[in-house]
Design goal:
- There is one protein chain.
- The chain has an eight-stranded parallel β-barrel with strand order 1-2-3-4-5-6-7-8, surrounded by nine helices.
- By secondary structure, it is of the alpha/beta class.
- The longest helix is centred in the last third of the chain and has 25 residues.
- Strand 7, helix 9 and strand 8 form a beta-alpha-beta unit.
Length: about 525
């Protein structure tokens, strides 16, 4: 089986992405997670470029890696220096990594315009830099910056740059699509020329995604003989990003039968993807192939009916192979199959001819047309399912709420008070509470009336609160009178759950979501007691 090494540059190239800010400790954590995934090379950063990278290289010396080799990244020596007195090369050596990767100019335009030197001097700088490092570190990798643009404008010179680095001792030559504008057919043509001119050289690919082709170009480079792919987790990187290793790796392993990190490690891909995004404080992209939350999510009734018979009907791989899972969504496009699947997932075996299924389906489609979205609020759906099955929850009943919002001075904080009247176990509870805004005040007043009867409600914590203005919903009046959907994520020591409410009044929508959240907590507590869990 052909093998391809994976070179991760999330900590360097990925960190150049807009909104991407990593501390030295963040980089240490990500590097260790990449090693667990089985990545072969981790490009750790540019020594001396900034305090964060300097601190990282100092900190990382205290860790050992099972699979990965650390690489320090930098440029060829400065035009005014020799290798012996160049601070760039000195910083690379001071990082004490087994691998050093340097980039050099392979596009004649960059040599003459960006650096302002002759083409011959550019070759001299590349040769001297690579030779200097090759005598001092285990492995030197040469990134031929702008290689494909250089090859397009001056193919002979671009290939000469590669030959110069190879003869100076570079263990691998990386062909870079630095501007990300190369089409796949041009990748094929250029690599054919390089392999003909340098058949003994070991090649790699470093593609940017400015034309949405970084993954495709990386796969094509491998097909044409490249033995290393450089990229980043989740495709993070400058401008439009780099080749997304979360797509490159499974395509190589599962579609092209090429060994990279191995199929067992591949099952850690989703967890690694989420770890990096969470560490960077970036929201995971839900429609990302392979590892996105929507990658194996099914909404249409016909699709769901088919995957229940054979998942291959609408899934190109087994989601478990990349650590993901199949999901069935509930929506106005749902059919009976969606209801049956979701009910079974929640522990309820329903027959397709059960009248409950039709009742649920009609209710679901009606609610979805009003702006409800049960695909993101499983707890609210389960409560609706309970009601349809005749198991209506009666922990408490609503009678009245009243909310006052006031602001007395320009710079003062607004003042909010909520009054709630409910029936609980035959008693009328009339409570009031202040809070940081109307939703918080309502939540506190409601709990105040309930916790005497249900003490375990003190365990509940609000984890997230989202409001979205809906357009196109039934009775939508537009503007500030539009309908809104409120999603509340709540949790206790056992689990997390999401509930929702929809109304043209944001307080009413919030109230619906809060009531569902509390009802769900009480329902789950009853279920756990029945199962002997507590």
């Amino acid at each position: 089986m052909k093998k391809v090494t994976i070179y991760d540059t999330t900590l360097r190239d990925g960190a150049q992405a807009e909104e991407m800010n990593l501390t030295a400790l963040d980089k240490v954590h990500i590097a260790r997670k990449l090693d667990e995934l089985g990545i072969h090379y981790i490009e750790a950063g540019w020594p001396g470029a900034n305090p964060t990278d300097a601190k990282f290289f100092d900190e990382i010396k205290g860790y050992s890696f099972k699979t990965a080799r650390l690489a320090a990244f930098g440029s060829t020596h400065l035009t005014r220096c020799t290798p012996d007195d160049c601070p760039n090369l000195a910083a690379l050596l001071a990082a004490q990594t087994p691998v050093v990767t340097i980039f050099g100019k392979s596009w004649d335009l960059h040599a003459t315009t960006a650096l302002g030197i002759s083409l011959e001097r550019n070759l001299e700088i590349i040769h001297n830099s690579v030779a200097f490092l090759a005598r001092r570190v285990d492995e030197v990798i040469f990134d031929a910056e702008h290689f494909f643009d250089g090859y397009k404008h001056n193919p002979e010179y671009a290939v000469t740059v590669l030959r110069t680095a190879h003869e100076a001792g570079a263990a691998r030559l990386i062909l870079c699509d630095t501007n990300g504008g190369t089409l796949t057919a041009s990748i094929t043509e250029a690599i054919q020329a390089v392999t003909a001119a340098l058949p003994e050289a070991s090649l790699g690919i470093h593609a940017h995604n400015d034309s949405e082709l970084a993954v495709a170009n990386s796969l094509e480079a491998v097909r044409m003989g490249a033995s290393q792919v450089q990229g980043t987790i989740n495709g993070y990187g400058e401008r439009c990003g780099n080749a997304n290793l979360c797509s490159v790796i499974p395509n190589l392993e599962l579609k092209m039968d090429i060994q990279t990190i191995g199929k067992e490690n591949l099952k850690r891909l989703l967890a690694t993807s989420h770890f990096v995004s969470e560490t960077a404080n970036l929201r995971p992209f839900m429609r990302q192939p392979f590892v996105g939350a929507s990658a194996f999510a099914h909404k249409g009734g016909i699709h769901v009916s088919a995957i229940l018979k054979d998942s291959k009907t609408y899934e190109h791989i087994d989601p478990i192979s990349v650590g993901n899972a199949q999901r069935v969504l509930l929506s106005d496009q749902a059919g009976k199959s969606n209801i049956l699947f979701k009910a079974k997932e929640l522990g309820y075996e329903l027959d397709k001819n059960d009248p409950t299924v039709n009742t649920l389906l009609k209710e679901l489609k009606l609610k979805e047309s009003m702006g409800y979205e049960y695909s993101v609020a499983d707890a609210s759906f389960e409560l609706m399912l309970q009601e349809a099955l005749g198991m209506k929850l009666d922990y408490f009943s609503f009678r009245h709420f009243f909310v006052v919002d006031a602001k007395r001075e320009e710079d003062a904080e607004p003042f909010t008070e909520a009054t709630v009247i409910i029936n609980v176990k035959g008693q009328v509870e009339h409570t009031a509470a202040t809070g940081m805004g109307p939703v918080n005040a309502l939540d506190r007043a409601l709990r105040k009336g309930l916790e005497r009867f249900y003490p375990k409600l003190s365990e509940v914590r609000l984890l997230d609160f989202k409001v979205r203005v809906l357009s196109g919903a039934v009775r939508d009046t537009g503007g500030t009178a539009s309908f809104v959907r409120v999603l509340i994520e709540t949790g206790d020591k056992y689990e997390r759950w999401t509930t929702m409410g929809v109304s043209h009044n944001i307080i009413e929508a919030s109230w619906q979501a809060v009531v569902d959240a509390i009802n769900y907590k009480l329902f789950r507590d009853d279920k756990r007691r029945a199962e002997g869990i507590e």
